[in-house]
Amino acid sequence: MYTTDISLAKTLTGHQNPIFALAGMPGSPTLFSAGNDKGIVEWDIASGKFVRILCAVPSAVYTLCCLPSKDMLIAGMRNGELWCVDIGRQQLIHKMKTETGAIFSVKVLHGKNELIAIGEEGTAYVWSLDSFELLYRFRVSSTTVRTIEPYPGGRQLVFGDKDGTLYLYDVNDFKEVEKKKVHSLPVTALHATETYLYSGGRDAQLFQMEQKDLAIVRNITPHMFTIYGILPHPTAPVLATVSRDKSIKLWDSTSLSLLKNVSVDRGYDGHRLSINTGLWMENQLITAGDDKLIKIWDVVAREA
């Protein structure tokens, strides 16, 4: 059993509209944020300082993804465009587009050097990261898909759709392996660890599942409203969840027992509106949401 201590280190201000996406550059203090503003912002979280507007964008940004090996930031937008931006040169390298609708999730398939995106229309698009050529296009669901989560090892990945259904796919040939309705409302967050797959939804439910067949191991109701992020700690068996109910909660990742409840009501200088996204950068948890703020939390996890 682990115990956790959490304290607010910094609050980053400057966004004029809700924030939907964060991405961190591994091994550095560089953080990127975006949302309903017309630009992607770069921050230095060590100093808590604004660095620059990396680039202007034509539409709201729903998802960000860093590719350190290419010094690249990938952004998926409401208008269906997917931008690949060279960070160092501050230059748009390539622009791709889905046929219709917003892009809600984008992930890198490292073993194949490919990029996969999906969104409003329920169709997945796979591009080569070498040539940016569209390699595959396949229908996953007849409705909106908001989340993609590759498994560690890169052999399989999971999609979650608006009907609450999970789809397990083989990465080699993008064939469906398993399909299971888990949530009563849309799937809004997925994360896979070495051991389990976790799924959160608009029904405020969190499911812990076996990866191979999506069999449910545990199910809890961690929040009052939609779960927007499931964020395993980089090294400790601790799981963070963030929600529309404005709270952050820390859990034992195996037993799903509650370790910490972080909210304004609990005396923390927390978010006062929906928390839409989060990520870990080493031992710091970064959260952001509708209140236009980015909060950097120091987290200490230790064995009890």
From TrEMBL:
Q: Which domain of life is it from?
A: Bacteria
> What are the record keywords, sorted?
Repeat, WD repeat
Q: Which positions does the entry assign to WD repeats?
A: 12-53, 220-261, 268-304
- Where are the membrane-spanning stretches? none
Entry's InterPro entries?
WD40/YVTN_repeat-like_dom_sf (IPR015943), WD40_PAC1 (IPR020472), WD40_repeat_CS (IPR019775), WD40_repeat_dom_sf (IPR036322), WD40_rpt (IPR001680)
Please provide an example of a Pfam family that matches this protein in its UniProt record. Answer: WD40
What protein am I looking at?
WD domain G-beta repeat uncharacterized protein
This protein's species is Sphingobacterium allocomposti
Q: What is the lineage of its organism?
A: Bacteria, Pseudomonadati, Bacteroidota, Sphingobacteriia, Sphingobacteriales
